[in-house]
Amino acid sequence: MSFPSPQTTYQQPTQPQPPVLAGRGLVKYYGQVVGLAGVDVAVRAGEALAVMGPSGNGKTTLLHVLAGILSPDQGEVWLAGERVDQLGDAARTVLRRRRLGFVFQDNQLLAELPADENVALPLMVDGMSRRDAIGRARATLAQVGLANEVNRRPGELSGGQAQRVAIARALVGEPQAVFADEPTGALDATTGAQVIDLLVGAATQRGAAVVVVTHDDAVAARCHRVVRIVDGRVSER
């Protein structure tokens, strides 16, 4: 499978699809501080949604609630027809491992492992044999342009290459939703464009819903749709 090249302009899918990921009436408090103030958001399969807004206004809180990392104080989170917020901690951990993918600004790769083992790790944790997991990891790394880098450790990779490994790790389990928190924040503009193109390409070609938290207008412009969150409230931009 190949992914779109940098500078690709993405269009909203022409045939409306039901949302694969949805938050309804989401409220989250941190003591007396309101993190989310009744947020409704939905993302369809094959759609990339950018979430923008000032720092401290709820972007990462929204991502964590949608991903089942945090539980909302009020409201509902649904993934492919299953209500996530009512699951226990153990069930949400399994859901994140099997059905969700994550890409962070600092990539969170294990320094002592080569690229293929970093990508294969979540599969092996979930019980897949090492042979099968490494095989799938290498195939996924090839799809993000790293077929020749499978044996390199994170310290031997450029920032853009390391972030591609993180994308491969997020995609290797065929997730229904992928969450990216400032995935280009540590990259130059050209490399960042390549990284976000890979993420959006994954949404389009694999049918995953992608949520990208970003402060960068150029990154947001490469997604299908943009919402802005201010004081815990979301509006379409």
Q: How many beta-strand segments? A: 10
Sequence stretches where pLDDT stays below 50 over 5 or more residues: 1-11
- Beta-strand percent range: 25-35%
Average pLDDT, rounded to a whole number, is: 90
Q: Order of SSEs, N→C? A: EEEHEEHEHHHEHEHEE
Biggest sheet character: 6 strands, mixed
Total number of helices: 7
Radius of gyration: 17 Å
Helix content: 25-40%
The shape, in one word, is: globular
SS-based class: alpha/beta
- Measured between the Cα atoms of the first and last residue, the distance is 32 Å
Strand order of the largest sheet: 6-7-8-3-9-10
Q: Could you describe the 3D structure shown?
A:
The two termini are 32 Å apart. The chain has seven helices and ten strands. Mean pLDDT is 90; it is low at 1-11. The relative contact order is 0.22. With 237 residues, the protein is an alpha/beta fold. It is 34% helix and 26% strand. It is globular, with a radius of gyration of 17 Å. The protein has a six-stranded mixed sheet with strand order 6-7-8-3-9-10. A four-stranded antiparallel sheet has the order 2-1-4-5, with helices on one face.
Q: Which terms summarize this structure?
A:
single chain, 237 residues, alpha/beta, six-stranded mixed beta sheet, four-stranded antiparallel beta sheet, 26% strand, globular, disordered N terminus
Can you describe this structure in just a few lines?
The chain is an alpha/beta fold. Helices cover 34% and strands 26% of the residues. The protein contains 7 helices and 10 strands.
